[in-house]
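Q: what sequence does this backbone want?
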């Protein structure tokens, strides 16, 4: 009879007793193993979504212009916690200007660390979030 290798738990390394196809010594080890295996991608997505929400909030707070436009310095954005790595979309105009958006709020880089903050309410209208009286 050939010698079989002793099976050990994939999570804690304890000796496994019971069925030959058993991989974990207990339900707790099985749950913990799968939690660790699946947690990293979930945390990454959560962190990206939080960064997008923070960027939107920063742009919204700083864009105080009555017409939805405000000129602001890069340092002010960074001081509020804006991360230039995360945005939802870009828009290139016919004139060649590149707008970077985080949901309905965005900016146009003017040069010398100045940005024009803008708001595109039509994004909200497409999503059905804009109230009827605001459309008129």
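A:
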């Amino acid at each position: 009879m050939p010698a079989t290798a002793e099976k050990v738990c994939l999570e804690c390394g304890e000796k496994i007793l019971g069925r030959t196809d058993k991989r974990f010594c207990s339900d707790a080890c099985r749950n913990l193993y799968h939690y660790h295996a699946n947690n990293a991608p979930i945390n990454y997505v959560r962190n990206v979504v939080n960064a997008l929400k923070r960027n939107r909030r920063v742009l919204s707070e700083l864009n105080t212009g009555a017409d939805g436009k405000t000129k602001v310095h890069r340092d002010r954005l960074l001081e509020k916690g804006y991360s230039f790595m995360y945005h939802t979309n870009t828009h290139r105009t016919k004139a060649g200007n590149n707008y970077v958006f985080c949901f309905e709020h965005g900016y146009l880089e003017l040069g010398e660390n100045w940005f024009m903050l803008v708001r595109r309410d039509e994004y909200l209208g497409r999503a059905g979030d804009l109230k009827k009286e605001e459309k008129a």
